[in-house]
Sequence to fold (70 residues):
Amino acid sequence: EKAEKLSDVKSNTLRSFYLIEPSSTNLNKCTVYHLYRADYLGFSTEWYNKIQVHILKSYLLNLKDCLIKK
Fold:
């Protein structure tokens, strides 16, 4: 199934980095992942800097609740 091309979508890139992992079976190969976080809602980087602690706290509390229920 083909994905449709999005046009005129603006975003702010908040973080972008590469993770390179060596292959466990072949020493001459590796896997490269491009990880990024982007905002498509129009919030500024400053807004994320202010709210990031609260978002992270919420994620960690949800993870804690999930692990305690098991």
